[in-house]
Amino acid sequence: MADYKGIKGFHIQSLSTDPASSIGATGSWASAPNINTGRMELFGTGPGAAGMVVNGTTDGSDGNQVYDCEVYNGSSWTEVNNTDQRRQDGASAGVTTSALVTAGYTTSPRGNSSFTETFDGTNWSEETNINNGIQGRRGLGASESASLIVSAAPSNNCELWNGSSWTELNNQNTARSGQGTFGTSTAGIGSGGNPYRAIVESFDGTNWTEVGDLNTARQYLSGGGTQTAGLVFGGSEPPSTTKTEIFDGTSWTEVGDLSIAKYYGAGGGTQPASIYAGGTPGTPAKQSSEEWTTASSFSKMTEGQVYFNSSSTNAFKVSQYNIPGGSWASAATGNTARGNSGSFGAQTAAIIATGYDGTNVSNVESYNGSAWSEVNEVNSPRRELSGFGTSTAGLIMGGRPPATGATESWNGSTWTEVNDLNTARADTNIRAGTQTDGIYAGGQPPTMANAEKWDGTSWTEVSDLNTAREYGGNSGTTSTSALGVGGSPQLTVVEAYDGTSWTEVAEINTGRSNAMGGGGSSIAAVNSGGYTTTTVANTESWNGSSWTELGDLSNAVYVQGSGSNASTSAQISFYGARPGYVAASEEWTASLVNKTITVS
Prior knowledge:
Blueprint: H1 4-8, E1 13-15, E2 28-32, E3 43-45, E4 52-54, E5 69-72, E6 77-80, E7 91-95, E8 98-102, E9 105-107, E10 110-112, E11 116-119, E12 124-127, E13 139-143, E14 146-149, E15 158-161, E16 166-169, E17 180-184, E18 187-191, E19 200-203, E20 208-211, E21 222-226, E22 229-233, E23 244-247, E24 252-255, E25 266-269, E26 273-277, H2 283-287, E27 289-293, E28 306-309, E29 315-321, E30 327-331, E31 342-346, E32 349-353, E33 364-367, E34 372-375, E35 386-390, E36 393-397, E37 407-410, E38 415-418, E39 430-434, E40 437-441, E41 451-454, E42 459-462, E43 482-485, E44 494-497, E45 502-505, E46 516-521, E47 524-528, E48 539-542, E49 547-549, E50 561-562, E51 570-574, E52 585-589, E53 592-596
Parallel strand pairs: 1-28
Antiparallel strand pairs: 2-27, 3-4, 4-5, 5-6, 7-8, 8-11, 9-10, 11-12, 13-14, 14-15, 15-16, 17-18, 18-19, 19-20, 21-22, 22-23, 23-24, 25-26, 26-27, 28-29, 29-53, 30-52, 31-32, 32-33, 33-34, 35-36, 36-37, 37-38, 39-40, 40-41, 41-42, 43-44, 44-45, 46-47, 47-48, 48-49, 50-51, 51-52
């Protein structure tokens, strides 16, 4: 009998476990031996099978601070030489054979401590005091001679220890105590912090830059890993939490939980191997330790991957993006608040051009996935324009006042005026395509159905929309597979374009104008924000036949920008009005998941 490979010509792989998005996603926590002296507000280092915990307090009071230091060998905790000073809520960095502790609160003498000690694997040595010893500071670094101590509120001061002296470095953008830190002194991460922060900042050796927020805001958490492969765990939301998140240098993903919810513990290590010991609340928490490990090898998940799970499920599966399971998260704030701008690009590479903040602005900003930077200005400042393309090859067109057909081309560094639209117009974001092949439809004044196609040189009139409208929305990557969604007055009507004509398809659930969106084609799109009788945060996805309500934007916004080439699994919404003009950005991300293939 012929098999599937013989019939179809390709092989379906058989896997004993489902593929994972990364090695970090395969990880889990397992109970490790209790530490000898149960405590909280302690600090320490990793990795998992070579961790260390230092100082702390047995009951939360400064009267019961301890000098104790313990190291872990993968099977048991052993007491080693005590520190010279006892303290709680301090900072540590390095590894068990080259570690540093500093800052915190001490009773000897009582108050914030600037006392600094280093550990060589056997003995502690007193070093030059840190400049700002406020409690709540945290540390990161590969060794005691390259240790970075981050801020603690109310100060956002950061200091570097080079093995002999302290140097003040550029401040963090947001001062906070009890961060989860990991990485090195030239490539580090500070995440979360008091009071219940989700903010994450990345350090490049000189500057701090805000990157993707934690999924769960928290304080007094711990972390381990590198700037592009890290994890954080525990903390207080409140209450204390078991949640663990891994970081890929851009975004965070929730993975396996701790078995005991706690905060004010000590931990560290790497994304494949970390340790977390002590903490609060309660006796089990302050005595316990847990070890995080990942699989020794894994099969990486890729979109469209089909396989047979041979272990327990005996099922055919496919790896695909879970669009309804996606969510919005805050991204970097831009430089000039505005709305009614021209925009294009993708989630991590976008452009916003000109717009309105009470007057037409000429400036342009570029987004690289972590920060907005000002680039060269447009030739003709205007508002209520549109755009499509990529961050290095884009086009803006239309706008007012008065209504214009002006079109400008962007090559990644400069703007060039090119041929105008045939019909001057403004107030539409029904657009799709590239710098050499795009479609643009609708607008006003008066309200119109006109559509025009761009071939890289000039505009040509093509088939009109069935429903004339202004303030419509959506975008796509090609001129032959586009959507026109909603519009004024709060329309639910949706039309799909196939390169020749527009066809009405299923209506959007919430009629609105001034919304934005993106997606790869007329059968896969996301539409977000807009205006009904008020500004809304609604987000809906299109699968080619129907619209599904998804998780809302964190903040309602309209006349915002979006990446014209952003996919349904990786969207961006930026700037706009709510109703005052803002420079905030949000990123929409849907994760790859493994779904069983069913036949009906």
